[in-house]
Amino acid sequence: MILQDGIRAPGDRVWLDLPNDGLEYEFIETDNFRAGAVGNFRFERQTSSLVRGFKHIRNIDISLEGGGFAEYWPAQWLRTRAEVRDSFVGANGYIADLSADVVAHPFNDRFTATAGPRISFADQQFMESYYGVSPSQAATAGLTSYHPSAGLRSFGAGTSLRYKWSDAWTTLGFVEYTHLANIAGQSPLIDDRGTQEQFTVGLGVKYNFYINPW
């Protein structure tokens, strides 16, 4: 279950937010483009949750990420978006997420359906945080050491369906599929003790807060 919220002034445009988007604040906005600051958090990594979990690999606390985003609509039915974020709490390193979604209203304007591809890149520090295995960790955990490079982290696709009950309340369901690419997938944490295929299924509620400007 996810809970999204937004704070805006009456009359502001309500942009389409998808479950994999970070929490953003736009500084630039036109009819089909917006850009600004974005934040995100990543749940802690508990190595005991891996298949045949082990205790000698460092857990990662909840990771906080901050950076910028840009979103462009080439057509009313097509949304493209890019986020670049730096992990400054928990993990380390930069990650870039790119997505594109076809947007449709299958029944009426209250329903919004989306579907499209996802791709993610990361620098070496980020890859090392989540997929690296140091020689000392390898010796105690019974794995081979692994030092991943920067590059393609994952690719996949996502789809969502939402229903707008009112100007304030919206509910949605979504499915996201992620395949960890070779750099991440070849890590012993994934290849030996985990899986390259990741699925996320969820339900969410969004509530918009409207405030009057000064």
Summarize the structure.
The protein has four helices and ten strands; from the N terminus they run E-E-E-E-E-E-E-H-H-E-E-H-H-E.
| Strand order across the largest sheet | 1-10-9-8-7-6-5-4-3-2
**Count of helices?**
4
Quaternary arrangement of the chains shown? single chain
The rough form would be described as: elongated
CATH topology: Porin
Distance between the termini: 35 Å
Percentage of residues in DSSP E strands: over 45%
> Which class in CATH terms?
Mainly Beta
Indicate how many domains the architecture comprises.
Answer: 1
Q: Which spans have pLDDT < 50 for at least 5 consecutive residues?
A: 1-6, 48-53
- Number of separate strands: 10
What is the helix/strand order?
Answer: EEEEEEEHHEEHHE
Largest sheet, in brief, is: 10 strands, mixed
Under the CATH scheme, the architecture is: Beta Barrel
Mean pLDDT: 85
Q: What is Rg?
A: 19 Å
Helix content: 10-25%
**Based on helices, strands and strand pairing, what is the structural class?**
mainly beta
